[in-house]
Amino acid sequence: MGETVVEESEELATPGDVLGRAAEVKPGRGAYLASHNNLVYASLTGRVRTVAPPPGSPDKRPTVEVIGHKAHGAVPEPGSVVIARVTKVLSRMASADILCVGPKSVREKFTGIIRQQDVRATEIDKVDMHSSFLPGDIVRAIVLSLGDARAYYLSTAKNELGVVSAESTAGMAMEQHGTGYCNSCPVSQGKSTSNRDKKPSSVPLPMEYTVAPSIKTMPMIVSLKTCKD
Amino acid sequence: MAGKASTTTPSTYSPSPNQRKRPPLFKDGDLDWVRPDGRGFHQCRPAFFRTGAVNAAAGSAYAEFGNTKVIVSVFGPRESKKAMMYSDIGRLNCNVSYTTFASAVRGQVSDQKESSSMLHKALEGAIRLETFPKTTVDVFALVLESGGSDFPVVISCASLALADAGIMLYDLVAAVSVSCLGPNLVIDPISEEESYQDGSLVITCMPSRYEVTQLTITGEWSSARINEAMQLCLDACSKLGKVMRSCLKEAASASEEP
């Protein structure tokens, strides 16, 4: 993005306030255009922000937006990256509760599902759901679409998506080592069986030693560990 | 009407109003009775609004018009368990309830289910439902004290709560009711006046766009009186709209200060 001149005015707008004429401004987020009288009105309560048009565009009108003063809960939209916790794993799909949309956490959880064909990009028919996800795992996914009435459709089929944090069967948080199924990324794509079975070094404690986990609840903000090759 | 004259003795003086909301549209020098609280016929009660009353809700508002006190909480947009059908646009779910101590006589005041569906019809025209597809916005209105003209207060308070919750609206919604008492048109009636009314007219409008979202008329009206009452209400709605906007702006600037 080149330098876009952004101007934030001191005035507060309330829903229904006139922000300008359609010939002079373009409605952005928090504003809309009324077609019957060609005026741009505000939709939210907040500060008015004017963004100058990008230099190459034919449309010379600035975009006017209203920045809501209240940081209310976010709603998942197609294309947004979300953090979700897996609740149920079936043979062809996994059900997950969406906890954060982008950097904001939601007020009340939304339901999403990850279908077998959306777990990864390669060999999608050979995906084993039970070795990719376990209930309780934290997953970073992208919203594919609004889905059906019950759930949003999520996908982890990209390098930077997938299981971000998990607990082992002994109850301790697992570390990420190298790659599982994924080709080149630093994050374990899906959940590699190597993390659970084949690399004992990544399971901190042997199975018969039970430990009370220090943090049972999943963290809301999850940071990604880079792998050591 | 004889019934009315026996409750309030008709006097010949015109009361000097302590707080005029706007200049009278019609001369009321020839009308022969006084409103119990001393207001002019075309004078509304002073309105008090406050947003952010309920912490648990996404948005909330409290309104007090004389003795009518209403609190509205808005939850959403959130997933609705009841929604079995997929919908491209958002859904609105309204619920109006009265507390048991809301009326002078303990017990239910009026039909709650009807009020809920009327609130839904009044608000749905003002909300941009396409901005929150597949989710639901729940509006819960609780009438704490019913002092007359409850439903218009509920609507205005609900629209403030929606604006406080950050739901995208086309415009704020203001509502005012007018009662027909014999030859007189009385705006913003109290419960005593409502019990004697011949007819009532409730207008819900969007003041900035000058569009009406709901019009409810009960009783017997001639077209001329309907026009007169509508003009009265629309004028009052635009003034109420200004009060509501100043309340929102005050709350927004107060929350930004620290």
Automatic annotation (TrEMBL), chain A:
Coiled-coil ranges (or none): none
Region called Disordered, residue ranges: 187-206
InterPro entries: Csl4, EXOSC1_C, Exosome_cplx_N_dom, NA-bd_OB-fold
SUPFAM superfamilies in the record: Nucleic acid-binding proteins, Ribosomal L27 protein-like
Organism, scientific name: Rhodamnia argentea
UniProt name for this protein: Exosome complex component csl4 isoform X1
Cellular localization per UniProt: Nucleus, Nucleolus
Keywords in alphabetical order: Cytoplasm, Exosome
The UniProt record lists the keyword Cytoplasm: yes
Superkingdom of the organism of origin: Eukaryota
One Pfam family recorded for the sequence: EXOSC1
Record keyword Cytoplasm present: yes
Exosome complex component CSL4 C-terminal domain segment(s): 105-146
Domain Exosome complex component N-terminal: 12-51
TrEMBL record, chain B:
Domain of life per record: Eukaryota
SUPFAM superfamilies referenced in this protein's UniProt entry, alphabetically: Ribonuclease PH domain 2-like, Ribosomal protein S5 domain 2-like
Gene Ontology biological process: nuclear mRNA surveillance; poly(A)-dependent snoRNA 3'-end processing; rRNA catabolic process; rRNA processing; U4 snRNA 3'-end processing
Domain Exoribonuclease phosphorolytic, chain residue ranges per copy: 43-167, 171-232
Compositional bias (Low complexity): 1-17
Keywords of this entry: Cytoplasm, Exosome, Nucleus, RNA-binding, rRNA processing
Segments of this protein annotated with the region Disordered: 1-29
UniProt xrefs under Pfam families: RNase_PH, RNase_PH_C
GO molecular function, one term: RNA binding
Subcellular location: Cytoplasm; Nucleus
Example of a GO cellular component annotation carried by this entry: nuclear exosome (RNase complex)
Family, per entry: Belongs to the RNase PH family.
Name under which the protein is recorded: Exosome complex component RRP41-like isoform X1
